[in-house]
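Lab notebook, design round three. We kept the backbone fixed and only want residue identities now. Task for the bench partner: fill in a sequence for the structure below.
Input structure tokens:
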């Protein structure tokens, strides 16, 4: 067993486990060197190279879990979606979804067929990683946002208009995405992942009633589809302070908080029967070392030594983050001795 898995299963740990979203990537010099030769898509297409990038932060930082180097858009290829990952922009869809006919044309691939190169890389990482391997997928609403908007959005006006004006097509779209991601996540677990995280990065754009009525059932269906696998299931979202209770109701084992709600308050709202992950503001790592240490300790204090806390950021590591601050964060977490509850 490992610290990460113990905490993920709400068992006592000697030290709080820590891993960071986007820990494999832009902030590490060894990754930047690889990117001088290969693009993100080219790296993921080569399992050996993908495994190397995934394990770089484990060796460099001493984190307690390896998160697969991939992109939430990759399994959409298996659905028949053409897109480009544009540097400093994000995913750009060749033909955005705009009608019921567009939704009907989308395929629902079986498991590994969604992104076979990712699954091959998972097998390789799982066979060589000294720490547990976490895999992930996008959640239905976030993926639908990219498909309908055509690229990253500030106001999500197109996907909301589609949701309101073509409700049947919107439900079909989310249903197809949920089925695809359920099979894709299952394939990753069968390839060696010991935990999965569902990224609903843009769900905070929704009103509470729209989330509960239109989106929550599809998210819940993914967690239900994975329940028999017995691996920890994490839900992540941003700007979700108004949605925490219904997010907890979708059925995750762990809720990952962003930094906009204090960890102790967020944990109380989702319920202490669930684990919690987070939730340092990534921008703190752009500040001086004294601030990093102070804010990391504040998050740990708020966890109160309660079993079930996994330290992480409230979103991904920012590209300009100094390597020294990443190392300081991990050291500070591992130096902290959880005080027993009560």
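Proposed sequence:
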């Amino acid at each position: 067993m490992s610290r990460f898995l113990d905490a993920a299963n709400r068992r006592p740990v000697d030290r709080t486990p820590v891993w960071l979203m986007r820990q494999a990537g832009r902030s590490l010099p060894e990754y930047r060197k690889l990117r001088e030769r290969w693009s993100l898509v080219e790296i993921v297409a080569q399992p050996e190279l993908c495994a190397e990038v995934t394990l770089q932060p484990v060796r460099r930082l001493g984190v307690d879990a390896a998160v697969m180097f991939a992109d939430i858009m990759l399994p959409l290829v298996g659905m028949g979606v053409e897109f480009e990952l544009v540097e400093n922009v994000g995913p750009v869809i060749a033909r955005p979804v705009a009608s019921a006919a567009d939704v009907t044309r989308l395929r629902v691939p079986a498991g590994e067929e969604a992104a076979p190169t990712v699954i091959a890389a998972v097998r390789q990482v799982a066979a060589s990683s000294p720490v547990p391997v976490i895999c992930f997928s996008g959640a239905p609403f976030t993926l639908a946002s990219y498909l309908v908007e055509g690229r990253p959005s500030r106001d999500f006006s197109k996907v909301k208009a589609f949701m309101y004006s073509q409700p049947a097509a919107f439900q079909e779209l989310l249903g197809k995405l949920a089925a695809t991601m359920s099979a894709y996540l299952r394939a990753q677990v069968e390839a060696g992942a010991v935990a999965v995280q569902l990224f609903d990065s843009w769900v905070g754009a929704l009103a509470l009633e729209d989330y509960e009525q239109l989106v929550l059932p599809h998210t819940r269906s993914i967690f239900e589809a994975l329940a028999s696998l017995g691996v920890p299931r994490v839900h992540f979202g941003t700007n979700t302070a108004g949605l925490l209770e219904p997010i907890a109701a979708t059925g995750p084992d762990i809720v990952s908080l962003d930094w906009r709600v204090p960890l102790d308050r967020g944990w109380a709202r989702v319920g202490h029967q669930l684990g919690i992950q987070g939730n340092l503001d990534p921008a703190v790592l752009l500040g001086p070392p004294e601030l990093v240490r102070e804010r990391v300790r504040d998050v740990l204090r708020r966890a109160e030594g309660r079993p079930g806390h996994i330290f992480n950021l409230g979103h991904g590591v920012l590209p300009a983050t100094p390597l020294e601050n990443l190392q300081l964060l991990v050291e500070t977490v591992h130096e902290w001795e959880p005080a027993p509850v009560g």
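Keep this in mind before ordering anything: The radius of gyration is 19 Å.
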